[in-house]
Hints:
- The protein is mostly helical.
- The protein is built from seven helices and no strands.
Amino acid sequence: xxxxxxxxxxxxxxxxxxxxxxxxxxxxxxxxxxxxxxxxxxxxxxxxxxxxxxxxxxxxxxxxxxxxxxxxxxxxxxxxxxxxxxxxxxxxxxxxxxxxxxxxxxxxxxxxxxxxxxxxxxxxxxxxxxxxxxxxxxxxxxxxxxxxxxxx
Length: 152
């Protein structure tokens, strides 16, 4: 068991695992919905009119954007990756993605301390814009989930 957890001590490996987890989970959901729509004889546009399916679709699309932003943050510097990983921990906690939460938390935990580096020296607008977009989508998703739970 300790060998299993030892592989997560390298934050770069954990970042790669998180990247592929996000991509594969989103693609798996989209393939599943495509199969369901083909089996029921409904078009994908008709299937996505269901509120639960629409919310899951939005969540899977936001995860694809998060995976792309993870690669951008990883290419910048340690401080940028740490800030983005903390953002990811909060996002995964609020969406209830336990595996993503654990992987993002392991990145933060095992990452060496960042030196006096600036946040995203070359891709600042892309990262901040993407994080704001994901944050807004998350707020809308949470409001829609609460609305569904409260029967509105």
